[in-house]
Design goal:
- Helices cover 30% and strands 17% of the residues.
- The chain has 191 residues and is α+β, with helices and mostly antiparallel strands.
- The strands form four sheets. A two-stranded antiparallel sheet has the order 1-2. It has a two-stranded antiparallel ribbon with strand order 3-6. A two-stranded antiparallel ribbon has the order 4-5.
- The longest helix has 12 residues.
Length: 191
Amino acid sequence: EQYGATSAMAIVMNPQDGSILAMATVPRFDPNDRRVVNPELERNRPVVDTFEPGSTFKIVAMTAALDDGKITPQTPFHLPGSTIELYDGKFTLKDSHEHGPEDLTATEILEQSSNIGVSQISLKVGRERLEAWMKRFGFGATTGIDFPGESAGLVLPLEQWSGSTIGNVPIGQWIAVTPLQLASVYAAVAN
């Protein structure tokens, strides 16, 4: 209500085994009054709808870098400022808040949700390994939940990545995921 949202979705998942304890979507409909049901409200949106995940996707690059041994939580990074130009000025990457040059650890990059920092971390991971981790986490494939119409999401094949894709995908752009896929990743990390 405070932000004027027109809908919301929630998934409660057991991180130990991935079982779904609850799933809800609002607005809802009254199944007892089928005369006024809007078909849009009948979809199980956490399973069938996709969205561009934005900063919630940063955990994928961070997990890849940590697990592949490219960084530790204390690895330092130098961020030249809150806006950087890449690829001869063809691509601008910005952080959500203004800042001058600063040094942050990998942990602080995740805490502050720094687009520039995650981009630097992703460069250490590399395109091939980042794509492999996205597949390993199940993006671009259905989870296998027992519900008809589950979406696989949209993942750009590696051969279609441009020079800036390594900067965009890790910050949740140029990819579409379902809330169920994203919840599964967070459950795996929590586990």
